[in-house]
Each structure stands twice: as structure tokens, then as C-alpha cells.
Amino acid sequence: MNMKIKEIIVCEGKNDTNVLQSYLECDTIETHGTSLGEEVFRQIEQAQKTRGVIIFTDPDHPGEQIRTAINQRIPGCKNAFIDVHKAKTPKKVGVEHANKQDILEALNNLMTYDEGLKETLSYEDYIDLGFQGRCDSGQRREEIARRLYLGKPNAKTLFKRLNMLQLDKAQIEKMLEESENKHE
User: Fold this and answer.
1) Which CATH class is domain 1-115?
2) Distance between CA 31 and CA 43 in Å, rounded?
3) What InterPro entries does the annotation carry (predicted)?
4) What is the 3-state secondary structure (H, E, C) of 22-33?
């Protein structure tokens, strides 16, 4: 028996819907690309009011554009992120290419954007942690993002998401240390 999802999942297209519905009992709203029309926004707004929304877009640039547009316009949506390596074929990237386990893992690690949260990590601390300005910054960002199920954000987006999770410098340092110890 498939797991039932109360919220409506916003995905990019029919293939995503088909895969999600093969693994889960869920309803979806498809964006059909990055040019979100008023009608799609209205559907998502209504879904958010009645059942809640989970944004589950592809781990690529267009997917991030769609996610950002929806989060900016409709507060309180939950966000599911899937690692790009878990959602790709040699030629394509997308939720529809992920396996059941990876999709369920993404849905078990949801985040909600909240502009009202206080900043727990300063940009100075973020730089001190080595997430920007070092030769291994990209690798460090990727490691912490993978560990926290945040997709593959760029430097600015990772800073925002770490604050969204209300993590401080000490907590992040500990995670980085644990990761380094694991790789030794």
C-alpha cells in the first residue's frame, strides 16, 4: 500500500506526476515549465489554504526558478529537495528519474520558508565556515546540503536555507567535522 500525502505536491510535469503517483497516493499540480501563469498560481494558493502544498521541483536551474517564484508569492509552502545525482539519467535531470526510496527520503525532510525567522548564522560566520571564497567552498556547500537534504544550492541560496533551518555556526561546524571524520 502506498503512503498517502495530505498536501498537494507541486511538480513540473506529467512524467513527475506519473512517477509520484506510482509510489504515493497523492494529488499534484503541474507547473508545465517556468512560465507560471496566473491560473497555476491561483490553484497553488487555493491548495495551500485547504490542504497545504509541497513544492517538489527538479534539482536544476529551472526547478529552482519555479520553487523561488512560488515561495515568494505563496508563503508557508513546504519544500522537498532531491539531490541532482539521485534524479538524473545521462542526458536528463528530473524528479521523474528518481527512485522510490530517494523520493520518500526527500518527502521525509521537508523545509518551510519563513521570512519572519531571525538570522541564526551571520554572513561572516558563513564565510568563516568556508562556504564561500575558498578553493573547496563548492565541495563544502555540497556536503552540508547533501547532509541536510537541501538539494544543490548555490552559495547565496545555501546561506538562506541554513538560516531557514535556524542552524548556527557551532551546529554547522559539528556537522562538517562529522563529515570530515567519516571520510578519513
Assistant:
1) alpha beta
2) 10
3) RNase_M5 (IPR004466), RNase_M5_C (IPR025156), TOPRIM_dom (IPR006171), TOPRIM_RNase_M5-like (IPR034141)
4) HHEEEEEEECCC
